[in-house]
């Protein structure tokens, strides 16, 4: 599992654990419960949520520090050949003030990307009208809603009604623009982009030190069509800037782009030969025989994106089932849905000739860890 996946999955485990806490709490409600009980439960549970949040921040921060350091080491190794080409001793991060400063700022940047999402002030829950409300208020609202429904529906029916509604909704993050994203996805995206930026900073700084006159774009197997013509090739700096200016989604600048833009000395030889790049292109663009309901057939790259959406759905369903169990609710309907989705995923992957990724369907269990 890549560390990119770790950030999202660990955060999803936190989401599920928090909503399991809420589902379990709602089982305390009965015909004698009052709004004062709802307020007391919310205060007690917020203390637990804060402890869980502290554990998550610490775990993600530890991994981020490792990943930033690895990015610096990778940039050092890659740059070494260019220094030697010029008869210079390779420069390492540990022995250079500029690079050491970038290492420090890179760790700070990634930590900030984590903290920007992992604050309860930006968490949101849905209310019973389908509106997003601040997390603590939403938590209190759900407790109060169950208590209010018990005289009308009965205790078990009221709990079931509320738990079944929020089990699949997750915790959302709302950006200043008003856009929302599920918490785990927001953390994954923020950290991935921050790590990418740090990696680019290390490489660009090394390029300035060894005197780069061009850039090389990394290549990978399942490349998006807008970047496919450019990956694995080297360009003079001016030409690359011209290419970037014509792309709606610039290469190596986030937006779910996995490419690195690496400084190089033109003519030193690219990492990828034409045969390898042709293999990458053919692998990404080949037809799979798999069609959407609209009738459109997906190529291999598009199919891997479809796979990823199905894998995310499986994790969400598993999380919802955990929440239902914590709320004392049956999971038969979701289990049947899960079985159908996995069966379709397996059948479609066989048809497309693309390997399954069961590791991406795995669900973590979140445990509070006391920090020393």
Description:
The protein has 372 residues and is an alpha+beta fold. It is globular and about 80 Å long. The model has no long low-confidence stretch (mean pLDDT 92). A four-stranded antiparallel β-sheet has the order 2-1-3-4. Strand 1 and strand 2 (132-134) form a beta hairpin. The protein has helices at residues 3-26, 35-85, 97-117, 135-153, 155-166, 183-210, 237-245, 274-285, 300-326, 332-352, and strands at 123-126, 132-134, 172-174, 180-182, 214-217, 234-236, 261-264, 287-291, 297-299. The two termini are 28 Å apart. The protein has ten helices and nine strands.
Provide the structure class: alpha+beta
Oligomer: single chain
Main sheet characteristics: 4 strands, antiparallel
- Give the N-to-C terminal Cα separation: 28 Å
What is the strand arrangement across the widest sheet?
2-1-3-4
Could you name the ranges where pLDDT drops below 50 across 5 or more consecutive residues? Answer: none
Q: What is the beta-strand fraction?
A: 5-15%
Mean pLDDT equals 92
